Amino acid sequence: GEEFFRWLVKYLAKTLDTAYSLVGFWDPRNPAKVTTIAAYCRGEFLDNFEYDLHGTPCEGVLGGGSFCYPARVQEFFPEDHLLAEMGAQCYAGATMRDSEGIPMGIVAVLDTRPRDAVELKEPVLRIFAIRAATELERLRTERSLRASEARARQQCAELDAIYQNAPVGLCVLDPE
Predict the structure, then answer these.
(1) CB-based contact 65:59 (threshold 8 Å)
(2) 21 has which bridge partners?
(3) Can you spell out the DSSP letters for 40-104?
(4) Rounded distance, CA 149 to CA 88, Å?
(5) CA separation for the pair 112, 89 (Å, rounded)
(6) What is the pLDDT of residues 101-129, one digit of tens each?
(7) Who's near 172: CB < 8 A, 6+ residues apart?
(8) Residue (of 25, 45, 14, 9) closest to 136 by Cα position
(9) Rounded to 5°, angle at Cα 137 from 134 and 142
(10) DSSP helix/strand/coil, 160
């Protein structure tokens, strides 16, 4: 569940020794925004937030798979005010994709110091992104199944009410 994503951002930041890490959900029905599922900063979990995708490194991640800016990331994305607020010098991100390959969101790490690209270990980031996407897809499927079950129970309850309140007898026949 949601606790998984908190665990993921915590251990991602620790594994890659970065100040920030986040998992963000991207909804194609609202393609201009990303909403964090979990975010972590220097040992503390952050409240989830929504941010504009345009002009951010995350926009490139969703469009192309993974990106790494080991230094001067703010110079490449001057419109991204969140990078400035964080004091970010480096950024690495990977796309979360569902089982059909459709983008679902991003997993990203940021740091306040320049880093060597090798230190950011993009393959590790991609592994975390795959695991996060799997969990997010599982949660979506579970929610969909619960909603379907609720609709089925409602329909059964409505049919039961019809049978219980019928002014005449009802008979169900098997045509065979």
Answers:
(1) no
(2) 40, 109
(3) EETTEEEPP-EEE-TTSHHHHHHHHSEEEE-S-HHHH-TT-HHHHHHT--EEEEEEEE-TTS-EE
(4) 46
(5) 5
(6) 889 999 999 999 998 876 667 778 888 88
(7) none
(8) 25
(9) 125
(10) helix
